Amino acid sequence: MSARxxxxxxxxxxxxxxxxxxxxxQVPALLARLDDDALDHAGRLLARLSPADVLTAHPETPxxxxxxxxxxxxxxxxxxxxxxLARHGLLLIPYAAGSGGYVQDLxxxxxxxxxxxxxxxLCVLDPLTVWDRVRPxxxxxxxxxxxxxxxxxxxxxxxxxxxxAPQGATFxxxxxxxxxxxxxxxxxxxxxxELGAIWREFNADLLRMSDPAAGVAVxxxxxxxxxxxxxxxxxxxxxxxxxxxxxxxxGYAREAAHLARAxxxxxxxxxxxxxxxxLWDGVLAEDGPEQVRAADSLRAGAFAGFRRTVEQLASQxxxxxxxxxxxxxxxxxxxxxxxxxxLSTDDFVTIVADWGxxxxxxxxxxxGLGISPSAVVFADDSAFEREVVRAGVQGAAVxxxxxxxxxxxxxxxxxxxxxxxxxxxxxxxxxxxxxxxxQRDRRRAGAKDYESFLRSLGIEVDVGPAGxxxxxxxxQLSLRTNRFNLTGERLTAAQIKRLGQDPDALVLAVRxxxxxxxxxxxxxxxxRRDGAGLHLENMIVSCRVLGRGIEDAVLARLLHAARExxxxxxxxxxxxxxxxxxxxxxxxxxxxxxASRTGGAIRYRHALEQLPPVPSHVRLRLRLAHxxxxxxxxxxPSSI
Length: 640
Description:
Blueprint: H1 3-16, H2 27-31, H3 36-46, H4 51-57, E1 63-70, H5 77-87, E2 91-96, H6 102-107, H7 112-115, E3 120-124, H8 140-164, E4 170-174, H9 180-183, H10 189-208, E5 216-219, H11 222-226, H12 234-240, H13 246-263, E6 270-273, H14 284-287, H15 298-314, E7 319-325, H16 328-336, E8 350-354, H17 358-369, E9 376-380, H18 383-392, E10 397-400, H19 408-413, H20 425-428, H21 430-446, H22 450-457, E11 459-465, H23 471-480, H24 493-500, E12 505-514, E13 517-530, E14 533-541, H25 550-564, E15 570-575, E16 593-598, E17 601-606, E18 618-625, E19 628-631
């Protein structure tokens, strides 16, 4: 029996035996083996599960609350969403509104949509959107007027959603396919072209509404329909008021799941590539470094297209690594032998070329980069090697490549593993910063002791109010940082923007640089002031700068500033999260005393009597207002 058949059989058995809720952690691995048709069936099985039963059996399961409403029947979307989220280890808690009442659902703050308290609200625009208000005889100009009315209505609904949905919730719209049965009601070719232009402008205006910082996202359905997915079935529309095909809803659900994962910060960081049959044609050990590209062949062009796709991802912050069963020297020669290739040795942050297990290789790469192995996407054309990594690297995404290189890019991009709400300047420079880190490591290895190494770095830290251009980066740190996120709280850009507008709140960006380069924004401090003093609600520091004393310098400088401002105390919170256990004692190590314990949370208090020193190897500038700046030596009592 095939792997797909075995996975289907196991899912059915779990369902029939009533064990599916208890086995929910096994579901992502089973779904990873299914094709689209089998996934549709699995979604119908999983949609019968009670989310409460799953959470009772596995309270740690990450859940996503989604409300679905639309112009027509959207119930068919829930099973597809259930399966797509489950593929990524997420549990759907759905609310599906009735048919056609989306305006009332979204305009009324007391509606069931808002009562569901969704993380995502999907307002599904089907292909009859706009056309349900157009009556014959019509001309393109009349359609343009109705399309503009629809856009203005959707903008009003988005504003209502922003005002009444939970903080951090996202309102999701989509572009609207243009059906042939409308365009070809126009017999004049000029008028038909005019209608096409009007419709594309309407969809462009919808796409321009996308603003993750304001809690609005727009899914573009044109790539789905361009790939051959039919948008509607007139029979389902006429007899069931269902104006989206199952294929369109499945594609929509896939994109919505990618959005949910990106909003949670569950984005992969590193693409680990095999070489032979994956990045190039041929077998290096047999063909030699100069011949692995099958020169002047059409097949070589297919591999070149895949390398260009990989290069584009790398330009936006995706870390590239190699894990190949080859000897290191021929690999280096092969990458250097073809200067016309889009990728070279310098594009990879690490290369593991040996004859060991590829699962061990992936673990070695992750450890060297300081990331979790679950943050890796592994690409290999060998089914055997894929199974080795799937079994040996928990949480890693494994791409189903095969012997057809022309499809490698489609497989790589199918699941949006690297999607983020924003691409920041820090993302674009990530690979360079990892190379700077390698230089630091080499210098550390040559230093007499760690203290002299730190002093040699010339570390400079700037702490000050986050600028509007830094909001996206701080949100990204909040969503993606696990090890030094002292409460585990995840904040979207919209939430951070609102905090920045609160006169009693402080949102401080931590920026760092040293002799090897500028790391940009590497952390954030979220604080609040009241009569009891300064409350540190959370501190986040990127794992790539841990160990340089930056987090110690920031906390010590804040304590000094608080005493100079004559505050009565500084309060802090540590809350247990997925990977921050090692930081449980961080506050205590800086003189804080435990004030209370509740569940997995510890509240600390510092009386500001005995203060820790600011580490001498860090030069730190603290600014607590946009129009003032204090060097370490000149922080004034009025600065907090």
